[in-house]
Amino acid sequence: MTDAALSAAPARALRRRRSPFMRKAFPYLLIAPAVVYLLAITLYPGIFALWRSFYAGRFQLNYVGFEQYIALFRDEAFWHSLSNTLIIGGLTLTIEFAIALGLAALVYRDPLVKGWRIIFLLPMLFMPSAVAFLWKLLFNDGRVISDLLMRVGLADSNIDFMGSTWAARSVLIVTDVWQWTPFLFIIFVAALQGQDREIEEAARLDGARWRQVFFSISLPMMRPVIAIALVLRGIDILTMFASPHIITQGAPAGDTETLSYFIYRTGFKSFEFGYASAASVIVLILTIALAQLFVRRFFRSGRD
Questions:
Q1: Residue 147: CB partners within 8 Å, gap ≥ 6?
Q2: For residues 162 and 55, what is the distance between their CA atoms, to the nearest angstrom?
Q3: Residue 161 and residue 233: Cα distance in Å, rounded?
Q4: Which among 93, 248, 249, 265 counts the fewest CB atoms within 10 Å?
Q5: Of 292, 280, 288, nearest to 81 (Cα)?
Q6: pLDDT of 131-166, one tens digit each?
Q7: pLDDT digits (tens, 9 = 90+) for 1-53
């Protein structure tokens, strides 16, 4: 008997000794610690927030039922923060999608992209708070952007980006686009590189141009990947907090206050924890609903 056969014999004997139940349960046992950890940091806080939303008060809790939800739907500040989130998030996601898809379509067959993908991910490696402080310095505190615009003749004086609604929103959009466009870009590049080259070559042999190949063949095949990528980014944008908190703090006049910053201000500045919990539950429901609607309405499944 060879050495390989001798070394494989104990492994075969171990497999024979395992019961059918253990063989089926073993993979689940391996991932059980991770599942327990994720449930502890996601499920428990969610259940606690739902429970806390039915109680008012800071130290002595009083059961109020759905009163805080009713007050929330009558709160103009809540609706204003919701509209800000949808406006800023919609513009941000659109710009990120357009830039990432355009760059991916141009370079996905370039060998340099395959070997140096990590370079495209560098903005994502920085902490969101650090990125927010950087862009706050460039736009507001250090006035670097204003100085550059004056040097090239596009501005006559320093620009107060926090004094205008759309200027302040633009700062948040630029900050998020700079950091998170690589996330969509690397997903789109991987999706394009994973497609069968023979399909593209067959289309080119039939006389199809690059634009026709991409929009008629490659892009439809990417629909499931695009759907998942946009849903992930959309969820992250709906919970945008670091940039509004560090750069604008809701200025001017609350026009850059997002839902997450509204919850933070309500819970940790006004100490209305039940009210903030009710807003958190609404954000969770809104996120799930928009994600389901987006996937079902705007993208077909990969089986179509």
A1: 158
A2: 37
A3: 26
A4: 249
A5: 280
A6: 999 999 999 887 889 889 898 888 888 888 888 999
A7: 455 554 555 555 545 566 777 788 888 888 888 888 888 888 888 899 999 99
* CA 242 – CA 256 distance, rounded (Å): 12
Give 157-177 as a 3 state SS string. CCCCCCCCHHHHHHHHHHHHH
Query: What 3-state DSSP class applies to 256?
Result: coil
- Distance separating alpha carbons of residues 80 and 165, to the nearest angstrom: 13
**Please, what's the b/e burial string for 147-172 (b: 16 or more CB within 10 A of its CB; e: otherwise)?**
eebeeeeeeeeebebbeeeeebbebb
The answer to whether 180 and 124 have CB atoms below 8 angstroms apart is: yes
Q: Give the span between the Cα atoms of 193 and 98, in whole angstroms.
A: 18
Residue 102 Cα distances to 119, 179, 182, 188, 198, angstroms: 18, 17, 12, 10, 22
CB count, 10 Å around CB of 267? 18
| CA-to-CA separations, 20 to 14, 32, 75, 225, in angstroms, rounded | 12, 19, 58, 36
List the structure tokens of 73. 């739907």
Residue 211: how many other CB atoms lie within 10 Å: 9
| pLDDT of amino acid 301 | 47
Is residue 250 within 8 A of residue 256, CB to CB? The reply is: yes
pLDDT at residue 133, as a whole number? 93
**Rounded Cα gap, residues 74 and 183, in angstroms:** 37
63: three-class secondary structure by DSSP? strand
Mean pLDDT calculated for residue range 278-301: 81
Structure tokens at 276: 């903030």
